[in-house]
From TrEMBL:
The keyword Isomerase applies. The lineage of its organism: Bacteria, Bacillati, Actinomycetota, Actinomycetes, Kitasatosporales. InterPro entries: IolE/XylAMocC-like, Xyl_isomerase-like_sf, Xyl_isomerase-like_TIM-brl. Keywords: Isomerase. It comes from the Bacteria. This is Sugar phosphate isomerase/epimerase. Gene3D superfamilies: Divalent-metal-dependent TIM barrel enzymes.
Length: 304
């Protein structure tokens, strides 16, 4: 007889539109937003993210009503940025960020997930820019991200958490460490995505142990090592890699989530751990059974 793992008393689990195959505000291949809300609640989650701006209702009162009557609460909003381009993109970036930050604040959430822009087209694989930043671009990325963190905190009361992501300039363990070393902990925290970190060669437990004080948020997903090897060999961009099934249902992939969650619990701080199983595009009836099984798996890991 095996004993149950210790309860993860500091970890608040949730899910996101991403786990329902939602990548865009509107897309005929995606489930309607009300179906997502119905099913994420039915699967046993209490916390959700907003997903792409415009997918869920953007009127704060309506969104509050739709989530509350399903017993759901919002943990974060998400923005994409290209801050390594420097001050020239600030006004355009802030217009985009401020709209999403306002809605995020109005839901009662306290985090804004910031994803750097892609260096190659997510669908075609075409090169949009050099995958390696120059020293000057690194300076712009770090200083402008610090500025974003300060502005978002001062104006909206939110904490930015930067999300290392495949096919962006903040991806590998080396680039994540470089980014953290060059940014102010008071302004910039990290959203550690276990799937993307593994996709880019990292170990999430080692990351938590190495720079746990910088981690402000978690995304939970797993990578299929066999498919990842094919993706690397074929040089696939992230979108087609997802279509091939590189992100898989736990616990069938890597990293094992129980030790990741246990390491996060040892940090001694409250953390969200939001399930994000990239599945775009996917059949509309596929997400709910996976979400139910994933929620049961996380309970078995101690996430009550």
């Amino acid at each position: 007889m095996t004993s149950s793992p210790p309860a993860l008393t500091r970890i608040r689990v949730g899910s996101a539109p991403d786990s329902w195959g939602v990548w865009f505000p509107e897309d005929p291949l995606q489930v309607p937003w009300d179906r997502f809300l119905d099913e994420v609640a039915e699967a046993g989650y209490e916390w959700i993210e907003l997903g792409p701006y415009g997918y869920l209702p953007t009127d704060p009162a309506r969104l509050a009503d739709e989530t509350a009557r399903r017993g759901l609460r919002v943990s974060a909003g998400t923005v994409f940025t290209g801050l390594h381009h420097g001050p020239a993109v600030w006004e355009q970036t802030w217009e985009h960020v401020s709209r999403i930050a306002a809605l995020t604040r109005d839901t009662g959430a306290e985090h804004l997930v910031v994803i750097p822009s892609f260096w190659r087209d997510d669908k075609t694989g075409g090169m949009l820019e050099d995958p390696v930043l120059t020293p000057a671009q690194w300076r712009e990325l770090t200083t402008q991200t610090e500025r974003l963190g300060r502005e978002v905190r001062e104006r909206y009361g939110l904490r930015i958490v930067v999300h290392p992501h495949a096919d962006t300039h903040v991806d590998t363990p080396e680039n994540v460490a470089r980014f953290l070393d060059a940014t102010d902990p008071e302004s910039v925290s990290l959203c550690l995505d276990t799937g993307h970190y593994a996709y880019c060669g990292g170990d999430s437990v080692e990351a938590i142990e190495a720079f746990g004080e910088r981690i402000g948020y978690l995304h939970l997903k797993q990578v299929d090592p066999r498919v990842l090897a094919e993706v690397v060999a074929d040089g696939l961009p992230f979108g087609p890699a997802v279509e091939r099934g590189v992100m898989c249902e736990p616990p069938s992939g890597v990293p094992a989530l129980e030790p990741v969650l246990a390491a996060a619990q040892r940090l001694g701080v409250e953390l969200f751990a939001i399930v994000e199983q990239d599945m775009y595009p996917c059949p509309p009836d596929r997400p709910l059974p996976i979400a139910r099984r994933t929620r049961a798996y996380l309970r078995a890991c101690g996430a009550r």
